Amino acid sequence: MSQDPDAPIFLVGFMATGKTTVGRLLAARLGWDMVDLDDLVVAEAGMPVARIFALEGEAGFRDREARALRAAGGRRRTVIATGGGAACAEDNLRAMLAAGRVVALAVTAEEAVRRAGAGSGRPLLDGKSDPVAAAAALLAARGPYYARAEVQIDTVDRTPDEVAAAVLDRLGRATATGAGVVIPVELGPRRYEVRIGRLEPAAVADALAAALQPTTGVAVLVDRDLGARSPRVAALVEALAARLPAVARYDLPAGEASKSLTEIERTTEWLAAHGYDRRAALVGVGGGATTDHAGFAAAVYLRGVRFAACPTTLLAMVDASVGGKTGVDLRAGKNLVGAFHQPRAVVADLGFLDTLPDRERIAGLAEVVKCGFIADPEILTILERTGAAISPETYLDLVARAVRVKAEVVAEDETEGGRRAILNFGHTIGHALEAASGYGLLHGEAVSLGMIAALGLGAARGETPPALVERGRALLSRLGLPVDLEGRLGPEVLARINVDKKRAGRAIKFVFCPAPGQTRLVELPPDEIVRHFQETAPPNRARGA
Question: Which residues are annotated as catalytic?
Fold first, then answer.
């Protein structure tokens, strides 16, 4: 296996495992090139595969295939889909294992024949009186070669999208140099990467500096409490100063206190006083409030300067720092003033989680659970198995999974004109609870309660199975997140639904979950939402007592 993170990924496996389709999906998600080995053979030969078999036999085709494989193996940042027999020559398999990472896609003989269909142009199957028996014999002969791949992925009962996601999860996109998992956010000219791992300050600074250059200066905006308790902050600022010009640190009020227009004014006045110009950059180091503040300040200072995020809380790593939504709060509600302003890079050092208070770490799990409900059900299974006792390796897996969900949704809908609204699952009631508490509730705690609300309302409307409501309640409770929604729904909470920022005219886009990994957006009048929760709240709370 190559230790180069940009080494090619070879997809091997039996016929009809979907290597070409999965290869295209992987290449799109990674921002890499994709080549099909059979296409290279056909282009070099000037005739289709069936014609090569007819004129030169299987031996002639395999010779051509081996030459094409040697040429393709020198590529970098490329997914290479191979033919079913390409890995079954010892020299070919060794070359692939040495040059890159080899992933075998698995299928049963019966499923391969079903997918291929009759008269499919598969030279080794067409014309056989018993194609299933022929496929089974061929699969038995090739199986020992496929088994030597670094990763094995079963494709039966999985869509190509699910197979591609499984490949990325198993490979982890981890590098041998400790550079971490790298997930691209594909936004054309605004494309950037999210890097996740237990990273040394120098590695964080390297990634940030590479993304922000050239720049005339860098303002590092730091959560004041974090800066006081974590020596990693000072080490990161020092490492940035060694790599970039005019680096200066500015401490923000801790947490949600930094998310106000008053604090934005103070920050931008400080930037102006220190002479930062339009080629300067901002770096936010802290939780979601800090990265939101940094992003919004960067969006409005001199009508927009570049910025990057170094999220230090679980919540910020999986949600707030990715996607370019920046903003601050008003007395009327959360995040009512803001802008879309994409970062140049996001670097999540999981080492910061070691100093995170338990309450904040657990609160961050709510946004991870959200991603499980809306797009990646495996997240729910993992957390049901682990509870809150999560190993460092599992944290890496969970953070990467959640970031992939958000990156894919954001790439499809950057400014929340459509599908991106699914990321608001649990947030309509969650934001109302959070604001009504005077931000005494942490964001993740409020989202946990908001998911209970969304699941319950979904069940009442026939959108969500009752069993899923109970599954969600059990999981969130096991993680240590609040689920006692009914006792919190006073008039001060319900009144805030009318100023929800997702309101469009007289309706609010409400996100329901019909099944894990599925969502349904429904426009509901705020009065209907309020009426449901008034009817379900205890009488004393409904009256505001």
Answer: 303, 325, 367, 406, 416, 420, 424, 427, 431, 443
